[in-house]
Amino acid sequence: MNLPNILTFARILLVPFFAVLYLSDWEQRYTWTAALFALAAFTDWLDGYIARKFNQTTPFGAFIDPVADKIIVATALVLVVGHYHHLWLTIPALVIVGREIVISALREWMAEMNRRGQVAVSWFGKVKTTVQMLAIVVLLATPPWVNAAWTIIGYLLLYAAAALTLFSMALYLRAAWPALKAGLDS
2: which of 50, 59, 74, 92 lies 20 to 30 Å off by Cα? Predict the structure, then answer.
């Protein structure tokens, strides 16, 4: 257990707190939920930075870090979609969560074929994650009944994240295609 893995576990432990906070009746819940989510997003960057900088990468960390990311992003999207009750928010959320499921299954299958390196995280995935995290922070921070520029920015960022999500999924599938085709042929 090293510092990057501790930060990852801390991110997972934040999930129930920010979910309960978002669903509470407290007047400041939107600001504080967005702040907790932003802190979790920062720990995602920080644990990766520390792991690479101080050579503290571990197989367990490589497994648990994306799991933590998916848990917190899926939870945040479910909360926001449930709170906003809007189809135009549901569509990009479904794209993002659906892609995460497909890519997780793809990575697991590729690992079983000893080809996990073909579907490693790329710089494009990091851009997608950054836009996604920004969109979620903005949407968590903005009450659904507020028709403000921030709401529009949150929607636009979420649609941009969904588009980047689809594009990155296409990149992963293209990289894995030879192994997928070989697996289908056997």
Answer: 74
